[in-house]
Specification:
Strand content: over 45%
Order of helices and strands: HEHEEEEEEHEEE
Structural class: alpha+beta
Radius of gyration: 18 Å
Number of strands: 10
Helix content: 10-25%
Distance between the termini: 40 Å
Length: 194
């Protein structure tokens, strides 16, 4: 899975560089939106820390609204779903599989473009565990935060590809547990509403 994450990250970087030449000739800029910019994306990631002991990777999706508040600055609102796939581990004589964890994160934040096509983003909010009983969690909601960097390049009239890499941390879902952290990627199709 670590190799898959590295290959995906490298592929995103190559795609961003190859499309940047095309983006130079497109009149639309990524730093000034025409109305609210909406995006629909696919997400994947690799758990780190204690979560990596019980879960292999995650897959999900999200929708995001980028609301322009100033030149190069957007307020973001993001909601999604992530499934963390449990690992099989040895529990004495028998093997057991850790239950999947289904999270529904809801976050708000800021997205800033220091230069065209490149952004830094920070979000915070809450993650709700959708399968609390099945996963054995003692809490149903946790605080979450996610710093992110990414590229957003035009692919047509008011249409964009948005690709970002982030670290996301959720506070404890289990009494005396640890934070649930992961490195993730998001690749999305975005469009301006005006």
């Amino acid at each position: 899975m670590k190799n898959l994450f590295k290959i995906t990250t490298l592929s995103l970087a190559i795609a961003g560089l190859s499309f940047s030449a095309k983006a130079q000739t497109v009149q639309t800029t990524t730093t000034a939106a025409n109305g609210v910019r909406l995006s629909i994306g696919v997400e994947s990631g690799i758990p780190v820390g204690n979560l990596s002991n019980t879960h292999n990777w995650n897959l999900g999706g999200s929708v995001q609204a980028d609301i322009p508040v100033a030149e190069r600055l957007f307020v973001t609102a993001n909601a999604g779903f992530n499934n963390f796939f449990g690992k099989t581990y040895n529990a004495g004589i028998v093997s057991k599989k850790a239950p999947d964890i289904d999270l529904v994160p809801v976050k708000v934040g800021l997205k800033y473009f220091p230069i065209p096509n490149f952004y830094v983003q920070g979000e915070a909010g809450a993650s709700f565990i959708a399968n609390k009983n099945k996963s054995g969690a003692t809490e149903s909601t946790a605080f979450t935060y996610a710093p992110q960097i990414g590229v957003q390049f035009p692919v047509g009239n008011k249409n964009y590809i948005d690709a970002g890499i982030r670290f996301e941390s959720n506070t404890k879902f289990y009494t005396n547990g640890n934070n649930n952290n992961f490195f993730g990627i998001r690749v999305a199709y975005a469009f301006d509403t005006k």
